[in-house]
Design goal:
By secondary structure, the protein is of the alpha+beta class. It has a domain of 58 residues: SH3 type barrels (Roll), CATH 2.30.30. It has four helices and seven strands; from the N terminus they run H-H-H-H-E-E-E-E-E-E-E. A four-stranded antiparallel sheet has the order 4-5-6-7, with no helix packed on it. Strands 1-2-3 form a three-stranded antiparallel sheet, with no helix packed on it.
Length: 191
């Protein structure tokens, strides 16, 4: 029984010896071993030979369509040359009043001060912070019940609507009840 582990170890060692004695396999007559799984990926010659076989890179002019149509710009059009004098004379489109704007919420925490405004022209609420722009108005101060705005020296405020003080809607009119139907006894059958 003591000789069994030694015999198994000797058999395994001899199997490994016969498997590894011809390792690494030599090149086949064609230069590559057809049975080798790495044959298609094997480079013949040095790396410098492979680099010289690559075609030359395209000139930068071949990529002008990429630079003219930037991937991350929504309209994907080239930038137009803008005349600086034309920009100075153009009047900015600004709203003259805050009519229809609704201050929906004010959030004041130690790290965050913001207000949520509902613009009747936009479907979603818009978050504003101090210094942000709202239709040409600059947000100066955000208080718990209002937002103070300024535009060209003119000041205005959006007041937070207090839903607790609004009048309750009119109660619906009661629906009149019909009088209950009284069932008449059936006539006795004639004999």
């Amino acid at each position: 029984m003591k000789w069994l582990p030694g015999f198994v170890l000797l058999a395994l060692g001899s199997m490994l010896f016969f498997q590894w004695k011809d390792w690494p396999p030599g090149p086949s007559p064609a230069g590559l071993d057809a049975d080798s799984p790495a044959a298609p990926n094997t480079l013949v010659g040095s790396e410098t030979d492979a680099a010289t076989q690559l075609p030359p890179p395209d000139p930068k002019d071949a990529y002008t369509s990429v630079t003219d149509r930037p991937l991350f710009r929504p309209e994907r059009r080239p930038e137009e040359d803008v005349d600086p004098d034309a920009q100075a004379t153009a009047e900015p489109d600004v709203a003259t009043s805050l009519e229809g704007m609704n201050l929906s919420a004010v959030i004041i925490t130690p790290t965050l001060v913001s207000a949520w405004i509902q613009d009747p022209n936009e479907p979603r609420l818009r978050r504003l912070r101090i210094g942000d722009d709202l239709e040409g108005w600059s947000v100066q101060t955000i208080l718990p019940d209002r937002v103070l705005l300024e535009r060209q020296g003119e000041q205005d405020a959006l007041i937070l609507r207090d839903y607790g003080k609004t009048p309750s809607p009119a109660a619906p009119m009661p629906v009149p009840r019909r009088p209950p139907r009284v069932l008449q006894p059936a006539d006795p059958p004639d004999q």
